[in-house]
Amino acid sequence: MKYKRVLLKLSGESLMGAQQYGIDPKRLDDYTDEIAAAVRAGAQIAVVIGGGNIFRGLQGAAKGIDRVYGDNMGMLATVINSISLQSSLRSKGIKTVLLSGIGIDKIAELMSGPKAIEYLEQGYVVLIGGGTGNPYFTTDTGSALRAIEIKADIILKGTRVDGIYTADPEKDPTATKFETITYTEAYERNLKVMDLTAFTMCKENNMPMLVFDMNTKGNLTKVLEGENIGTLVTN
């Protein structure tokens, strides 16, 4: 296995599946199967999932909700998504633990890097909700932070496209895919892969990231085994 310990970043919107809002049980089940298969193959997996399928702080701010309160609502949405994934994984016999950047002691343990590493080494899938625990930070930045904290080999960003393109392939049929790209080039080309804060953290801490299609069955395990899938972003 090429990557032993990984931080899997999923968007909240991806959980919607064909729905307009919330959690699609079929998509949740598909993702759970992918993660379970990877764990059984020997991978250590931590998961950070966004909350955009339930609430997004910036959208709330645009509608008159104070940004701090909106971001707090968004962080709670990530906890809801993490709980749904935890329940689904446990139903398939996978050990899980939920850690959170915000204190919700009856639902989740408070996130710490050493604690997360200990759970990973014991074979748990570690779900990390609650963002960074602070407003004004996205789950992209939270993913970068958590990957660095748990000493992950790589961030795997699961999306609905099979990598990074010169333009949005869903809108521009002439867009071409990158096999590899540097953080600097991705920033200079203004490719919206992650936000600038997340990019900077990954670049400064030499944390590679691979963007791949999570919706294709078997892709997660193939990526872990080193198959040439997606786009690798490095220094």
Salient structural properties:
8 helices; 11 strands; single chain; globular; nine-stranded mixed beta sheet; two-stranded antiparallel ribbon; alpha/beta; 235 residues
In short:
This protein has 235 residues and is an alpha/beta fold. The chain has eight helices and eleven strands.
Rounded to an integer, what's the Rg over CA atoms? 17 Å
The major β-sheet equals: 9 strands, mixed
Total number of strands? 11
- Report the portion of residues in β strands: 15-25%
Nearest-integer average pLDDT = 94
User: Residue ranges: pLDDT <50 for 5 or more in a row?
Assistant: none
**Alpha plus pi helix count:** 8
Straight-line distance between termini: 22 Å
- H and E string: EHEHHEEHEHEEEEHHEHE
Q: Structural class, from helix and strand content?
A: alpha/beta
As a percent range, the share of helical residues equals 25-40%
Large-scale geometry = globular
Strand numbers in spatial order across the main sheet: 4-3-5-2-1-6-10-11-9
Give a description of the structure.
- This protein has 235 residues and is α/β, with parallel strands linked by helices.
- Helix content is 37%, strand content 20%.
- It has helices at 25-40, 57-62, 67-91, 113-121, 139-149, 183-188, 196-204, 219-224; strands at 5-10, 44-49, 96-100, 109-110, 125-129, 154-159, 164-165, 177-178, 180-182, 209-213, 231-234.
- The strands form 2 sheets. It has a 9-stranded mixed β-sheet, sandwiched between helices. The chain has a two-stranded antiparallel sheet with strand order 7-8.
- Helix 1 crosses helix 3 and helix 5 runs parallel beside helix 7 (196-204).
- It is globular.
